[in-house]
Design goal:
It comes from Apiospora hydei. By secondary structure, this protein is of the alpha+beta class. It has 17 helices and 20 strands. The strands form 4 sheets. Strands 12, 13, 14, 15, 16, 17, 18, 19 and 20 form a 9-stranded antiparallel beta sheet that branches.
Length: 502
Amino acid sequence: MTCSQLPANEATGAAPGTDSTCNLLEAAGFQVLRPNTAEYNAREAEYYSVSAQMSPSCIVQPKIAQEVSKLMKLLVTNTTSNWAVRCGGHTAWGPAADIHDGVTIDLGLMNQTEYDAETQTAKIQGGSLWKDVYSTLEPYGVTVPGGRTSTVGVGGFILGGGNNFYSGHVGFACDNVVNYEIVLANGDLVNANANENADLWKALKGGSSNFGIVTRFDMRAFAAGDLYGGLITHPLSATDRVISALSHFVDGAADYQAGSAFAFWSYIRGASESVIISALHDATGTADAPAFAEYAAIEPRLSSSLRKDSHLNMTIELNFEKGFRNVWFAQTVVNDPAILKFIIEEHNTFVESWKAEVGNDTFSLYTPFQPLPAVLFAHGAAQGGGNVLGMNVTSMRGRNCVLHQAFLVFEGGPELEAEARRRMTGYREAVKRESVRTGTDVAFEYLNYADKAQDPLQSYGADNVAFLRGVAAKYDPEGILRRRMPGGSRYQRMSEYGAVEE
């Protein structure tokens, strides 16, 4: 839907096009970036994925929460323009954090973190990247459970859950938010915490951007020194041994909550075959922890960066190169080596098929496995308030599981992206069929890695969906976000969750 297709505003009778909206925002004192300017082009180029870049009529950059409030009131009351909200811009696809023929609200100038030593709370503005957060907290000797890649944005990461190096000990990032400062659809600036708007507080723990624009996340911080860990690379021939090591790690996670392990089967452009890159980290800085002994015994080892280093530097090591098209998807399976091996066989099949399509030097394919042990979800309840992810009851049913992600990174145009999505969908569906056949399927889809063709909110279970629908109806009774923010963090299908029907 383009802005020109929206009806005139009932309160004012005005129906300005998006260019008029941009003029209005500029006249109101907002910092506005226009197309075909160096500033606009540079900001669009900062998206992680080319696939996420759209063509907004303008980009508006608020600097404080009160400006976001004023901005929302102007957009809702005086315009009919649609908008998107950008935090870090790391989602792989569009229109997630950008928009065509609309206004992109870019929170990138709201990137400050303050540490309150008395309450041990980090107050993080909504446009921050995790590198901003860690570099601020490091001198205090504390950290928070955030992104494992330094260039990921705080906002989308937390609102989708937030798996992290410390998950085994404290749960997802969203479980560690004690307060959200949020601008609602009508422009009101409110707080959501255990004592104030507690239902909204819970809904924001995995409910994505369905409820407003979060301008600040207040998170529990904790004392933290250097981690021990890094990346170990093995040849593809070590697949069975790495799967065994990872599977045993997942099953032992309850007894070793200081550890983090995930593995990428990685075809990297121009290679003859994939390699296996395992990211192993001990949050206490302990070298050669017994839980990693099975990994340590795997030979040959092509490379290793294991060392003692800061939280920030460990996340810098996991940064991915931007400037390419991306197609991602996410699924969850029971921790069973047989289904994990099947997934890798599908990975290898996809690589050979895509090589035949485009050659071997214009794409990379990564298939990571990340532990989702049952102990992880107990932390959500233990931290108070719970979350809406539904993994501990509706999907996981107390089982240790593995999050399977696949992401294709490639050069090319929109037509090739359409073909890439078609084939990646085939990859995903093949895994789904096999997991259903073998009884290893788990319904949960992790929002932060899901493709726009997936519907992760539905995978949270009927009770959580009903709860989200009720919260949306309470805090956005007119369905403004559903109607005016067509992309959102995850193609939110607000017709299913909102109070207003089309």
